[in-house]
Design a protein that fits this description.
- By secondary structure, the chain is an all-alpha fold.
- The chain has one domain.
- Helices cover about 65% and strands about 0% of the residues.
- The chain is globular and about 50 Å long.
- The chain starts with 19 loop residues before the first helix and ends in a 12-residue tail after the last helix.
Length: about 170
Amino acid sequence: MQKETEKYSFVPENFIFETIEEEIIADQQCQKLLHQFYIWLQQAALTPERASDMAYSADYYLRDYILDFLQKNPLYPERGHVRYFGGNWYICNTLEPEIAMLERHLDSILKLYEFIQEIAPVNKEKIAQLKIEATDRIFYKERIDSFLALRGNEYDAWNMACQLNQTKVEFL
């Protein structure tokens, strides 16, 4: 019988950081969040292996991209973050980007924010925007295909086609 998880309260302000010490605390909060997410997935009838895969993908998004790269609060999703993650950052930071792996990451991001909605105050309109961005699979496939087909000095134009500032990253 699976042990019932303790309810952990996640306060968005605990994920805000300006100093390295605060960033370490935010990272620890993400680890706790991901652990709770893993348990939640198993309670939703996912196998431990599938729950682990989804938690790994969510970890990659939260800790490597949102916290480390963007230095943003994961409980305050912003317009364009998922689109830039899948359309540029993942592709450029993966040795051999492939749509199947990116789709696993995007599916995990969707599930993660479904979970976050249950435990923290998150703007529903922001979640709706995140869902739109995460489900635009044709866009991501085209971005990967065009990246893999780059020749010579075509990278700059490819890169400019999906920039964080072009996705109008802002609070909704």
